[in-house]
Design goal:
With 419 residues, the chain is α/β, with parallel strands linked by helices. The protein has helices at residues 14-24, 61-78, 81-84, 99-110, 127-134, 153-165, 285-298, 364-379, 388-393, 397-418, and strands at 7-10, 30-34, 49-51, 92-95, 122-125, 142-145, 149-151, 179-183, 187-192, 197-201, 206-209, 211-214, 232-242, 253-255, 259-260, 267-271, 307-317, 324-329, 350-358. The protein folds into 2 domains: 7-44 and 155-231 and 319-407, 3-Layer(bba) Sandwich (FAD/NAD(P)-binding domain); 88-150 and 232-314, D-Amino Acid Oxidase, Chain A, domain 2 (2-Layer Sandwich), CATH 3.30.9.
């Protein structure tokens, strides 16, 4: 499927850059296109984030997916010390703010084991034990992830981009392919032919590639838009809060029905809102105050620091909050041909050279490295083992399978009323 032409990656965030990393590690040249004038200008540009397990007592597709992503990503990021700087494995604690976490806590306290669940380095701790770990007093028990990491997504993107763009890399470098960046340019049209894909830019330039990866949740060309499963742009606001007592003592990621990260640059990052209706890019003081109120509810000691700033971004969410990774259909109208499990094996024909790696939502730091690797294997004609089950979970075909199920259910309901 590959030829001498480069792979064109649209989107300069975590999904796009880790796709390029996987491609270049195989000596494949890439062209990065992003409508912004710098990488990580959108959701991947947050100043702080975390990589931590998604635990569940049930082996759901979501739990299986993020467990695999966590295992892969933490090793990749640890190996990137020469690229991304030093990111200490500071751990994370999660208070019991959901039924899922309550069930996990109960299972851990009972000492129950499930061979299907990898809970290595995860502990159920009392409020006092959690407070000792976090170095701030919290008012309830929770779960401690020793192997979780607090990171800076924007720094990772920028330094990874610099590394991938550096033609003077040593011969023993992790990557061998070359990168050409077209920042500040927007894709207007994409046309696939037998041996290449032609991409028209907003400046009138046409760029040819062997494949195109759409790794952005925004500004899809109209020519391919009808073939792509929809995404929802969910507004997220984080607050920067003053690093005063007790937050100046915080040693790890603190999760509740929000999250607080250790101090960096004179402030702590407090997140995050999930607003499905608000399209405003302006900071809303009431949202930051709401986040601060949630934090105060879970702290067992007073905090009187001020809000000193914040950031708004829009995360690309899918209908089931798992990313879309795989080839795009050329026709999605014949829904009855799509298999019930969404694997798409009997689905309408797919594009040969147009691929998706998008919809990572607020977990791109965790999911993007493995998704870039899996997609690269698909494009390069390699085996996707041992990740075939994960590839099936994120196959874009599942959206059309879901549409089919809803359509069938509606028809059955309508038929029942008529009888």
């Amino acid at each position: 499927m590959l030829n001498d032409l480069p792979v064109i990656v649209v989107g300069g965030g975590l999904a796009g850059l880790f796709s390029i990393y996987a491609l270049q590690s195989r000596g494949i040249d890439c062209i990065l296109v992003d409508e912004n004038h710098e990488v990580a200008a959108a959701a991947s540009g947050n100043p702080a984030g975390a990589v931590l397990p998604y635990l569940s007592v049930n082996e759901t597709p979501t739990a299986k997916f993020y467990r695999s992503c966590f295992s892969y990503s933490k090793n990749i990021l640890k190996n990137f010390s020469e690229i991304s700087g030093h990111y200490p494995s500071s751990g994370a604690i999660r208070l019991l703010t959901s039924r899922r976490l309550e069930d996990v806590y109960r299972r851990l306290m009972e000492g129950s084991e499930n061979a299907a669940l990898d809970w290595t380095d995860v502990k159920a701790l009392s409020a006092d034990e959690l407070s000792a770990v976090a170095r701030v007093r919290v008012n309830g028990p929770g779960v401690y992830y020793a192997d979780a990491m607090s990171l800076r997504p924007k720094n990772i993107c920028r330094r990874l981009f610099d590394y991938l763009s550096d033609d003077s890399r040593a011969t023993n470098s992790l990557v061998a392919g070359k990168l050409q960046a077209r920042l500040g340019q927007q894709v207007i049209d994409i046309r696939e032919s037998a041996d290449k894909v032609s991409v028209l830019m907003d400046n009138g330039v046409v760029v040819d590639g062997s494949h195109v990866i759409l790794a952005t949740g925004r500004s899809w060309p109209e020519s391919v838009g009808p073939f792509l499963p929809p995404l929802e742009a969910v507004r997220g606001q984080i607050a920067f809060v003053e690093t005063t007592s007790p937050l100046d003592r915080l040693s790890c990621h603190l999760g509740f029905n929000g999250y607080l990260l250790p101090a960096a640059g004179g402030f702590n990052v407090l997140g995050a809102t999930f607003d499905h209706g608000n399209k405003s890019e302006e900071l809303v003081l009431a949202d930051s105050m709401m986040l601060l109120e949630k934090l105060s509810h879970h702290l067992a000691e007073p905090y009187s620091g001020k809000i000193v700033g914040g950031r708004v971004s829009f995360r690309a969410h899918t209908f089931d909050r798992l990313p879309y990774v795989g080839a795009v259909f050329t026709d999605n109208s014949n829904l009855q041909e799509i298999t019930e499990d969404g694997s798409g094996m009997n689905a309408p024909q797919r594009f040969k050279r147009l691929w998706l790696n998008t919809g990572h939502g607020s977990r791109g730091l965790q999911s993007a490295p493995l998704m870039g690797e899996i997609l690269t294997r698909m494009i390069n004609g390699e085996s996707i083992e041992p990740h075939a089950d994960i590839a099936a979970i994120v196959d874009p075909a599942r959206y059309w399978a879901n549409v089919k199920r809803k359509s069938d259910k509606k028809m059955m309901s309508s038929s029942g009323r008529q009888e």
